[in-house]
Structure formats: C-alpha cells, structure tokens
Amino acid sequence: MLAARVLKCTYCFTDFDLQTAEYTRALENFWCPLCRFRHMDPFNAIIEPSGILRQHMFMRPTVTFNLDLPDLKAWRKEDQSIFCRCVKVNSDITSQVWPTKLIMSANGAEVFRIDPPEEGHVRRDARDLELHTCARHRQWY
Fold it and tell me: Does 123 fall in a domain?
C-alpha cells in the first residue's frame, strides 16, 4: 500500500494525495489537479458544482472506467460540451500534457486516439479534445 503524500492546494486549500505523482516544485505554488482543470481554459468554463465528471491520477498503463451520463442529450440541446483533458501536476504553471498513447472509447465505439509519434518526430499535442466534435460521425452518445 502506498503511503499518503498529501499536499495542500494553495488555491482551494484542500488536501490532495499525490499518490505516485511527482511534484518537485515549491510547495507554496502547488495547485491540485481539479483547480488546474478549472483554470485551464477560460473560454470553456467548467459548470459548477459538478462540472468535472471524472478525475483520475494515472498510475497504470491502462485505465478503464465507466461514466454514466443520463443527461447527455439534454446537455447537447443546451449546447454544452464534454472535454477530455490531461493536466501536468509537476509544474508551476497550468499546462496540458497527453500520454504517449491514448484510446478513448464510449459505448463500444472509439471516440478518439492519440498514437505515439513516429521515430524521430515530435508529436504536437492537441489543446483539448471535445468529445462531441471527435464523435460527430460516430453514434456513441
């Protein structure tokens, strides 16, 4: 069992367990991942209080989870969007970072894929992925 590695967020003042995440920056600058998400994109604000549907610290190469979205059709009618984002914790600034490889599936259909870069090439990460836009021609919602 992992020992708790708790830091206090200097923005929301809640305690956050780093689990296996690395944080080598100044403790007085620590923002928890939820606060980082909330401030990542001012043009696509998170609807509070329950606008973050899922938050997960990656500790294994494969992560599987279920997300029940009974209000999804109503959200789409209200022109709301769902974004998938990954945030870098070990940083003094809020910045997005994606894993080397990611496959996002919903209801058995692939929504989007991030493949490793070809050898000798640098991958340019997408800023964020709006799931509805990625799945426009796929019926998963």
Answer: yes
Closest CA relative to residue 29, chosen from 119, 90, 108, 112: 90
Cβ neighbours for 106, distance < 8 A, ≥ 6 positions apart: 131, 135, 140, 141
Tens-digit pLDDT profile for residues 60-117: 767 777 777 788 788 888 888 778 888 888 888 887 777 778 887 776 777 777 788 7
Full-model pTM: 0.70
Number of domains in the chain: 1
**Which residues, including other chains, have CB under 8 Å from residue 52's CB and lie 6 or more apart?**
34, 37, 38, 46
Q: d(Cα 42, Cα 96) in Å, to the nearest integer?
A: 14
CA distance 123 to 82: 24
Does any domain span residue 141? no
Residues 116 and 124 sit within 8 Å (Cβ to Cβ) = no
